[in-house]
Design brief:
single chain, alpha/beta, Rossmann fold, three-stranded mixed β-sheet, 10 helices, 41% helix, 16% strand, globular
Length: 294
């Protein structure tokens, strides 16, 4: 890798996977510790002036965007301003900005996979905030790659998988939406995809724009839950015996979660040669890693 890579959010689950997989291929990242109050406009300005990277991978707000159960509009507004500042700094220094984002920018009202050509129309407040962040990146930085991921699963404390498994240890019946569909995307697979994108960018390929990636085989929330429980039972005793179907509209999370969140991955395949990987193949390893650290 000829480019100098700056990774914000290296301590996140996705950041750690990116660092680990990069090391296996001889790719290193400059991953500074964030200030105690988190990355803001002034600290990002100082960091960019000091490091002068060729590429910035921004995972600074990974947990809030992809794993947190809470939606804090004031917090998102602060992060939006910081990302806009970062995008402007990247543009000023001639750096590339690789910015993950989410399926949540779509409203989930259709029943066919969303492509990059489809107009975003977020349903929930998190999706609305992410769309504004996407728009800020496009407006402020010409050399950007926005990478929208499907349902991201990782082993982070307090994350979606953690909340599910803790709940499954306390109750015999779980209720989830059987009419909510998406692409489960394991954290190590997401890191693999980001590395593939970085390798192509290192070849000076001007492949700017927006791309989608989700694990192979779209599924429902109920079927994903059943798969997770099947793997988890081989590692730990759980109280949960079955998953009951509940309509998406009756779920409290319907306020912020699109009912249909399946992403088309054709563009990233044709542009970067990235093939979707079956999410089931890495599920056991992810859950095993989760229980090692829980």
């Amino acid at each position: 890798m000829h480019m100098r890579l700056l990774l914000l959010g290296g301590g996140s689950a996705l950041g750690q996977s990116l660092i680990r997989q990069g090391a296996e291929e001889g790719i290193s990242f400059l991953a500074p510790r964030p200030p105690e109050s988190g990355w803001d406009a002034s600290s990002l300005t100082q960091l960019m002036d000091e490091t002068r990277p060729d590429v910035v991978v921004n995972l600074a707000y990974y947990f809030d965007w992809f794993q947190s159960d809470a939606v804090d509009e004031e917090r998102f507004a602060f992060q939006q301003r910081a990302v806009e500042r970062l995008a402007g700094l990247c543009n000023h220094h001639g750096a590339i900005l690789l910015q993950p984002t989410s399926y949540r920018v779509f409203d989930g009202a259709r029943a066919t996979a969303y492509s990059e050509k489809d107009e975003p129309a977020p349903w929930g407040r998190r999706g609305q905030a992410l769309l504004r962040i996407e728009q800020g990146v496009r407006a402020m930085c010409s050399r950007h790659v926005l990478l929208r991921f499907g349902w991201l699963l990782d082993d982070s404390p307090g994350g979606a998988l953690d909340r599910f498994l803790r709940h499954s240890a306390k109750t015999s019946e779980m209720r989830l939406a059987d009419d909510r569909r998406g692409n489960p995307t394991l954290v190590d697979d997401a890191a693999r995809v980001m590395l593939a994108v970085l390798k192509q960018l290192d070849c000076q390929a001007p492949l700017w724009g927006t791309y989608h990636y989700g694990g192979h085989e779209a599924t429902t929330q109920v079927l994903l839950a059943e798969s997770i429980l099947t793997e988890a039972r081989t590692l730990c005793s759980l109280k949960a015996e079955r998953v009951l179907a509940q309509p998406h509209a009756e779920r409290a999370s319907a306020e912020n979660e699109p009912q249909y969140a399946v992403l088309s991955c054709k563009k990233i395949l044709h542009t970067f040669g990235v093939k979707p990987r079956a999410w089931r193949s890495g599920l056991h390893a992810l859950i095993e890693r989760y229980y090692r650290h829980v």
